[in-house]
Amino acid sequence: MELGMVGLGKMGAFMVERLVRGGHRLVGYDRDAGAVARVTAVGAEGADSLAALAKKLSAPRAIWIMVPSGAPVDDTIATLLPVCSKGDILIDGGNSNYKDTQRRAANLKSHGFQFVDVGTSGGVWGLKEGYSMMVGGDKPAVEHLRPLLETLAPAKDKGWGHVGPSGAGHFVKMVHNGIEYGMMQAYAEGFAILKKKNEFALDMHQVSEIWRTGSVVRSWLLDLLSIALKENAEMSGIAPYVSDSGEGRWTVAEAIDLDVPAPVITLSLLQRLTSRDSDSYSDKLLAAMRNQFGGHAVKTEPKK
User: In what order do the strands lie in the sheet with 25-29?
Assistant: First the structure.
């Protein structure tokens, strides 16, 4: 089967390589010519524009979009429509908000196009391990893409599934990432407690390795944490700044809309926001209030 891939960052490029290895024909486009050159080096064909990419694919085309959520997805779709044909399938494999996906699907359907949303997990490890994919959209379009999805997945019948109509794939991926926030926060806090217990001089990497086998807290995240601790147990040179790509915020907002209590996911999101404030005004106010009501000492900042 053939596929066009738009957006050849690390994840997109690795997906292209996995599909090429699986015997599929791939045509890739990215605004970065170097990214296109990298996928042609592993057996894909390159295109220097979206129009050129569409021209190299036979109808009905399948074009997978791997660009940042929001306006970049809308802009890509708007550029593709004039060079595509009715019946073509556009796939959003990025981390779009499911409400945007529902809007796009309805608009594309009115113009005779099919739209499939694929919440994709696996990151840079997907090339080797396969990708977990949560797929939303009309069944005929998903079935048409089955050979591609089976190649990308860890196994033909594992790690992927058609979870519902348009938007469902991105909704499930959104909640998946919200859970990921909570799991990561729990690991981080637990290891921080272990490290703070100076009298035991615990080996963080050793502990992570013990927990990886037989423990109820074992997971792939713990496997990755163990690798990180082996490489840099003190986390030297790493700034305490944690980004988020949006899904955690969307998950918390959805939980509020649905009246579902989600304190762990919510607090893990707030912790990420806290990590970005190196000069926290609220923390200073907390210290000042403790000083006012209890006479607790206030640490002063060094003069600049």
Answer: 45-46, 25-29, 2-6, 62-65, 89-92, 114-121, 132-136, 160-164
The answer to whether residue 15 scores a pLDDT higher than 90 is yes
Helices (H), 153-298: 168-196, 204-211, 220-231, 247-257, 263-274, 281-294
Long-range CB contact pairs, 228-236, < 8 A, 24+: 229/191, 229/204, 229/205, 230/205, 233/203, 233/204, 233/205
Q: Please, are residues 159 and 121 in contact by the beta-carbon 8 Å criterion? A: no
Residue 104 scores a pLDDT above 90: yes
Average pLDDT, the chain: 94
| CA 277 to chain CA centroid, nearest Å | 24
Peptide bond into 140 cis (omega under 30): no
Q: How confident is the model at residue 303 (pLDDT cuts 50, 70, 90)?
A: low
Element (H, E) at 99: helix 98-110
User: What tokens does 52 get?
Assistant: 């050129």
Residue 214 has a pLDDT of: 97
DSSP state of 81: G
Residue 294 in tokens: 């209890």
Predicted local distance difference test score (pLDDT) of residue 68? 94
C-alpha radius of gyration, the chain, whole number: 23
> Within 10 A of 143 (CB to CB), how many other CB atoms are there?
11
At residue 65, the pLDDT reads 98
**Mean pLDDT in residue range 4-26:** 96
Q: Name the residues annotated as catalytic.
A: 173, 180
Tell me how far apart the terminal alpha carbons of the chain are, to the nearest angstrom. 63
Which sign does the torsion angle of CA 61, 66, 72, 74 carry? positive
Read off the pLDDT of each residue in 183-189 and give the average, rounded to a whole number.
94
283: pLDDT strictly greater than 80:
no
- Asked if 77 and 51 touch (Cβ cutoff 8 Å), the reply is no
